[in-house]
Amino acid sequence: MKKLNAENESTLITQIKQKDNDALAKMCQKYAPMIMNVKRRFYLRDFDDDDWDQEARLICYESAVIYDEKRGYFGSYFKVRLMNHARTLLRYELAQRRAAHTHAVSYEQIMTDEIVNQKQITLLIDPISDVYRAYVKSLSPLEQISNLYELGLIDQEAALEKGKCTVKQLMQAKSRCKQKLKKLLMDQE
Fold first, then answer.
1. Radius of gyration of the chain measured on its C-alpha atoms
2. Which of 72-76, 99-103, 155-159 has the lowest average pLDDT?
3. Which residue in 117, 126, 136, 151 has the most C-beta neighbors within 10 A?
4. pTM (2 decimals)?
5. Angle (deg, nearest 10), helices 32-41 and 49-66
6. Residue 30 contacts residue 10 (beta carbons within 8 Å)
7. What's residue 121's pLDDT?
8. What pLDDT, on a 0 to 100 scale, did the predictor assign at position 5?
């Protein structure tokens, strides 16, 4: 019986190498308990069963394509590759630069669980564009040009020419822009 299974597995591997999707599905079905075991061992946020099945299918395909019968059983080779892939996904999720994402909460959860108070919700809903519009309206023509320069939309020469001013005056206008923006943002709290 074991010999028959090995021949069947060898046939499936050959078919997978020829890009036969049915053979890949059969192979994944054959190793479904092992795949389920890997799913249980690793928790990845936002990974559901479909994501795990897709990853397992991809690793099964890659494993079949590069599998060499001289190296041992396909099942153990596939398991090692799937475990290593799961560890890689876990490392990726736990990376320092993505640490903030692990504490993220959906807006729906905030609303249903009342995680934040009403003032904070208002701040989340109010568009920042209103603050920016008020900021732009408060600027003098030279300050508007300085703001464009600060945002990198025009270069210094163009700003000096449009504003008909010196570098010092442009820098002073830039400083006034920062002060006005800071004041507007502080008044929003």
1. 30
2. 99-103
3. 136
4. 0.50
5. 120
6. no
7. 47
8. 59
CATH topology of domain 2-101: Rna Polymerase Sigma Factor; Chain: A (1.10.1740)
Q: Which two tokens stand for residue 114?
A: 């009342």
The tokens describing 130, both together, are: 């209103």
Tokens at residue 97, please? 């630069």
Of the two residues 49 and 84, the one the predictor is more confident about is: 84
* Alpha-carbon 173 to chain mean position: 39
Cα–Cα–Cα angle for 43, 49, 54, nearest 5°?
Answer: 105
Whether residue 81 is predicted with pLDDT greater than 90 in this model: the reply is yes
Provide the Cα torsion 28, 61, 25, 90; round to 10°: 50
127 vs 135: CA distance, rounded Å: 13
**Residue 159, both tokens:** 């700003």
